Amino acid sequence: MSHDETTAADVSAVFKASREVRPSAITGRETGLELLETAFPAFVGRQVREAARLMKKSIDENNVVFTTMSGAMTPAGLHRSCIVPLIEAGCIDVLTTTGANLYHDAHRILGHRLREVAPDAGDTMLREARIIRIYDIGFAEDVLLKTDQLFGWLINAEEFQKPMTTAELHNRLGRRLYEIEDALGVDQHSLLATAWKYGVPIFVGAPQDGSIFLNVVKLRALFGEAFKFNLDIAADVHAMAAVQWLAQNEAQTSVWILGGGVPKNYTLQGEPTLTQIFELDARGFDIDVQFCVDPVDNGALSSCPAGEGHTWGKVSAECVEHNSVYVHTDVTAVFPWLVHALFQSGARREPRRLYDRIPEAVAVLDARVRERHASLLETVTARPEELGPEA
Question: What is the pLDDT of residue 124?
Answer without folding.
Answer: 96
